[in-house]
Structures are given as C-alpha cells and as structure tokens.
Design brief:
Helix content is 37%, strand content 18%. The chain is α+β, with helices and mostly antiparallel strands and 558 residues long.
Length: 558
C-alpha cells in the first residue's frame, strides 16, 4: 500500500514539475516575444519621429505622416529579423524622395549648445539596424531639413509650438494602432523639444518601452486614459497636466471641501474651499487624516503615485489629499486624528461647482506691519500699483514680498529699485528647430537699476510649493537685489514658458524653455534658491500660525 501511495505521489510530483516547466516555458517565450515586439515598436517610434523632424521632404509636410505610421506598423510587426526590419526602413526612406546636400547644416558648430538632452546614438546601433540603414540615418542627420518646419514653430519667447497636426475627434478609445500613434506623437515632442528631458526620474527611452505595452494592450477607455496620464506624470514637470472625462470618472467627481498637504509625513488639512462646508462637516485646520474609506492613507498615496504629477515631492504632496478623499459618492468615511482624539465618521463630498467661492474683494495688496515692516501680497498687487506701493513703503526698514500664490505680473519695476548696478538674473535655453533635440543658450537676462529710486532696506521674499513658473522666475529677478533674502520651503520647480503637447484628441502642457541662474545652476525640479528654509509644523497649522511669515519677521528684526 505504501509503495502504491509512493508511486502515485512521485507521479503527481513529476506531473506538477512538467506542468510548471511547461507554463514557465510558455511565459518565457511569451515574454521574449513581447520584449522583441516592444523593442521593435520602440525603434519604430524613434525612426518615425526622427524622419518627421529631420527628413527634408517629411518636415516640409509633403506626407500624411500619421498615415505613414499606420501603414508601416503592420509591416514591422510581421518582420522576424533585424535585417528584414532594416530593409523595411530603407525602402520607406527611399520612397520619401531625394535627400539633397545641406551646406548650411555645418554651421551648427558655431552655436553655443546645451546638449544634455541630445542623443541620436541609437541611429548608429548596428546590433539593431543594418550598416546601410545607420548610414542612411546619419546622412539624413547631416543633411537635415532647414527652414520653416511643417510640424513645429516657436513662440515669441522661443519655446516650441506644435502646429499642423491632424486633429482627431471622438477618439476617446481608438484602435490599437491609433493608440500607438497617440503615444508616439507625445513621446517625440518630449524627445526633441522638452528642455528638461535629461531631468526625468526614468530614462525617456525606458519610459517608451514601458508605456508601449500599456497603450497597445489597453482594454477600455479607462486603461487608455490612465496610460496617457501616467506618461504625462513621467515627464516630472509641475506644468504637465492632463484632464479627460474618463480620468475624472475613474478618480471620481466629488471632492472634499478641504485642501491638504503633507506635514511631518502626515496628511493634514491646511485650509478650506468654503468655511461653511467645513463647519457643516466638523472639519478643522490641522486635522490629520489617517484613513479614508477604511484604507490607510499611506497605501492610497502609494497606489496612486504613478498618477501624481509634479516636478518634486513637495508639489506631489499637495495632491495626496485628492487621491485619498475624492470619489464618486456624496460622502466618505474618514479616520481623523485631532489632538488626542480620534474621529471616525462620514464626511461630505461635493461637486467642484459647489466648492468654488467668490473671489475675495477689497483684500489689502500691501500694508505696513508692526515695527515699520512693509508686507506685499503679490497675488493681488497689480502693475499699476507698483509706483504708489514703493512710495508708501519707502521709509520702512524692510519689505516682505509674498510669492506663495500665483502672481499677476513680472516685478521688473520692483527689482530695479533693489539694485544700484546692472545685474544678471537668468540664463535660458530654447530648442534649435534646425537641429531638433539640441538647445541653444539665449543671451543672459539682465536688469538695470532705476535711477534715484533705490530702496535701501531689507527685502524678504516668501516662497513655498505654490510658487511656480512665472512666480519662480520673478523670485529669481528679485534675488538680484543688494539686500534680498529668500525664506520658505522648496518651490514648484517648473520654471519657463509652457508649450502644448498632444495625444490624439487630448492636449497636455510641458515646460518649453529651460531656465537657469546666471552661473547655470538649475531651477527645474529643485526649485529656486532659498536662504532660510522653514518647514511648517502640525502644531503651527493647528494654532493658525504662518510660520514662514513669522520667520521672515524674526529675520528682519534682528
């Protein structure tokens, strides 16, 4: 009996091992096939984008370039060897017409380039492409299109503008090949015209390899739109956004009446859209949210990390409350820590239209605080107010300039009163459309003093994660002042004019110009330079204190 049992056990074990081996072999073969397919589609994306912006006849707009991609995809998918794929590319390039010699292309050597983003080394990868194809791609690079490109132009500031792209309507969930076209369009704009591509957390080539299967294998509109959102997030740019109906439906269109931030690594209520809704729901500033819908807040934040946009963690922290509390229903159960008490109950969620309150009226644009210290709220101050404001504050011993919200104008006329000699304040890079992927240094930005109107007192600029884009640029401008100190927390790290980028039927935004300090130190992702770092505390928030302003007042009174 024991021998029979032993034989059956051995037979069962052998069967399991064989089945396991069979499954694993299939998985490995499938994995190899998927990787090869992804690699081939990734190379197609690069070749298609390269020809779009480099080939003289394509960049003129002589072809329906979207249709060309849709025609070539099935050919690449059917090819089984690198040689066969290279032959497809060579035939395709030959069909595009003659590549004439470009004598002016050699002039690029005379330009001052910023080349941290530039990489065409993949065109010479002979492990993937044949020697003939690599030579042909190099020929195109050396004789690239010069002149007015059909697909890209530049705004007045020099950032890229995407033009003449075919528009697609009712493409909420297109077919597989159009989904790939959508990804390839977006990816190549970042590849050639995003000044901070070199700063992304993930190598941009790796992003392409990772996102191709997600776009290709999306089973419904929700998966497709989340794939688009994830791609946008991987740009690591606080400017980069994407809003679509399927995305909003996925996360829910009902919101908490509070806004949140991460303070001491905890999700804390820092303010309200409407005080009346806060009172109705018994929510208080300083409340710590520990669970939402019965799930630990940390888990909710972690699972949504791939959809949380921002140049740095400080910006992403401001979005965590949304991921934890938004939804489709009218209420959500929250576990709240308030002092030593724990509150567990349902709290209301509301349509966005019910959260919008009236814009504050008659708010002071500037005032004189105790100890003869001026305070300026740059979110309300207007250009027309500057002369009177500076006259009224001329006798103060210090001026605190608050940039913790979005500003209304660039403060040249303020900054000119803070210097006695001409100062440099920024260096910028713009894309070189004659050599896509390369960026040119613009002349250093300078500012002259305003004669006979010098402010000799201390100046403090207040910043935090809401200090973004033009507010960061304005802070750099003010930092040229002879006696200026910057106090606060890390800024948004999204400096430079914005450019639109698009998937099929859906537009997004990226930073279009690169902004650096005169010494070429970076601002993107890291934010602007801060002299005195202040990190708000839960205790301070609960007590209703503005700890950044407190530090500024303490500083100017020393």
């Amino acid at each position: 009996m024991q021998q029979v049992f032993k034989k059956k056990y051995i037979l069962l074990l052998v069967t399991l091992i064989c089945n396991l081996h069979f499954v694993n072999s299939q998985d490995i073969e499938s994995s190899v096939f998927d990787k090869n397919e992804t690699k081939n589609l990734s190379n197609l994306c690069k070749v298609w984008g390269f020809l779009k912006y480099y080939h003289p006849n394509v960049a003129k707009g002589n072809f329906n370039w979207d249709e060309q991609l849709l025609t070539i995809i099935p050919k690449i998918e059917k090819a089984t060897t690198n040689e066969a794929i290279s032959k497809i590319y060579l035939d395709w390039i030959d069909s595009l017409g003659e590549i004439k010699t470009c004598s002016s292309c050699k002039d690029a050597k005379s330009k001052e380039y910023f080349d941290k983003n530039f990489n065409l080394s993949w065109t010479q990868n002979t492990e993937v492409f044949s020697n003939d194809l690599s030579k042909k791609l190099k020929q195109i690079e050396d004789n690239r299109f010069q002149g007015k490109n059909h697909y890209v132009s530049t705004a007045n500031a020099g950032n890229v503008e995407i033009i003449n792209e075919l528009q697609y309507e009712n493409f909420e969930f297109p077919d597989e090949n159009h989904r790939l076209l959508s990804l390839f369009r977006y990816w190549n704009v970042v590849e050639y015209f995003y000044p901070y591509k070199y700063k992304t957390d993930e190598n941009w080539d790796d992003v392409l390899q990772k996102m191709i299967p997600k776009f290709k294998n999306s089973k419904n509109k929700t998966e497709y739109h989340l794939a688009m959102l994830e791609t946008v997030v991987k740009v690591n740019d606080s400017h980069a956004t994407l809003y679509t109906d399927p995305i909003e439906d996925y996360f829910g269109r009902k919101y908490s009446p509070a806004y949140f931030n991460m303070v001491e690594d905890k999700l804390v209520i820092t303010g309200f859209y409407k005080d009346s809704l806060a009172k109705l729901n018994d929510l208080k500033i300083g409340d710590v949210i520990e669970k939402a819908g019965g799930i630990d807040v940390g888990k909710l934040i972690a699972v949504n990390k791939i959809y949380n946009r921002g140049s740095n963690k400080k910006v992403q922290d401001t979005h965590n409350g949304f991921f934890a509390t938004a939804g489709a229903t009218d209420s959500i159960k929250l576990n709240i820590k308030r002092g030593d008490n724990e509150i567990v109950k349902n709290f209301g969620r509301y349509d966005i239209k019910n959260l919008r309150g009236p814009f504050p009226k008659n708010k002071e644009k500037y005032k004189i605080l105790d100890h003869n210290i001026g305070y300026v709220d740059m979110s309300y101050l207007e250009m027309k107010d500057v002369d009177k404001m500076m006259s009224d504050l001329k006798s103060t011993k210090a001026i605190i300039i608050d940039y913790r919200e979005y500003m209304k104008f660039t403060p040249y006329m303020i900054a000119r009163r803070l210097i006695q000699t001409k100062k440099e304040y920024a260096k910028l890079i713009k894309p070189d459309l004659s050599y896509p992927g390369r960026f040119i240094w613009k002349p250093t930005e300078t500012i002259p003093p305003k004669s006979n109107d010098y402010y000799a007192g201390k100046v403090v600029v207040l910043v935090n994660e809401s200090t973004q884009s033009s507010s960061e640029y304005a802070t750099m401008l003010l930092q040229t002042g002879d006696n200026v100190t910057t106090i606060g927390t890390q800024t948004s790290g999204a400096d430079g004019n914005v450019s639109h980028n698009e998937f099929l039927g859906y537009k997004s935004v990226i930073t279009g110009l690169g902004v650096f300090y005169p010494d070429e130190s970076e601002t993107q992702r890291v934010g602007i330079k801060i002299d005195v770092v202040v990190r708000p505390t839960i205790k301070g928030i609960q007590e209703g204190r503005d700890e950044i302003l407190e530090k500024a007042l303490e500083f100017v009174q020393k």
